[in-house]
Amino acid sequence: MTRPLWIKLDGSWEEIKPLLTSSIESGIGNFVLNGENVKKAKQLARGIKVASFDSGSDIEILRIRKEEDLKNLKENSLAFVEIDSKEKEDLALSASKRAAYVLVSARDWKIIPLENLIAKNKGAKLLALIEKPEEIELGLGILEKGIDGVVLLVKEVGDIKKAKEVLGRFSVSTVDIRLGKITRIQSLGLGDRVCIDTIAILREGEGMLVGSQSNGFFLVHGETLKNPYVEPRPFRVNAGAVHSYIMTEENKTKYLSEVKAGDRILISDEKGATRTEYVGRVKIERRPMLLIEAITPGGLISIILQNAETVNLVSKEKKPVSVSRLKKGDEVLVHLEEGGRHFGTKVKESLIER
Asked: What's the whole-model pTM score?
């Protein structure tokens, strides 16, 4: 579920109406407006939620500058605190015990105050006022838990699209995991394989979705397992040959040869729960390779992986299984898509890949 995006619009009705309309058409329903625009906004669209310093709104905003202001907070209030000192941070924390929402604006120190509030929040929904869509990701990722929502000061239509894209990365989504039965295993000799090192620690059961065809992806397990010969690399997936497709953010794909530091790659677990993580480094080296084919409900799919004990797929029992021990008839976890990609984006077209 995507965390709420609130849109703050300043200016006259004539100035904000196009931005308000575009926001509503984009599926956004939470707004921070000034008093003269509240009634007109409610007339423009039913069902939206409006917060304002003025009367007539769904949620009353109260500016908290000193401790005495806390007395005016109600259960459905939104407390607005501009944090420029430790004392203001403490005020925001006190407000979280009384109000439904606490909206903070931190102009200089933006990370540490939010970290403290996230860790100590007493129950209110914690929102951050943000002036640039590019800053949203920082707030959502603080202490992993992140803030509960974003109030974005929108100045142009493009800000709305950018904000929704960033928020979408933090939504909890799943992919459909199926079983594929191994029908062929063939040693291919040397080839160029790609190791992808993320900037995150993967757990057992997690890996990347990789395949030789755009309609079928194997769950290639991370190097999280202990063995007597080499230390685990829990940030790494030995993903396969350079020609392979890999699933990235927003249901797109890349060739493994294209992946680079700073890209976002889709991580899936054995149940299909996904998230995206950044790539920190890519290693391409010549290694002995192995062709693996599997029959699935969607047809025959394949993958070419390094022939090594540390390279694992995921078995029917949702356990890592080394490609060195894989045999015909074994069942492994796969993800199926409709075939057809144009520069990584899914398209509907007739396509045969072998």
From this structure: 0.63
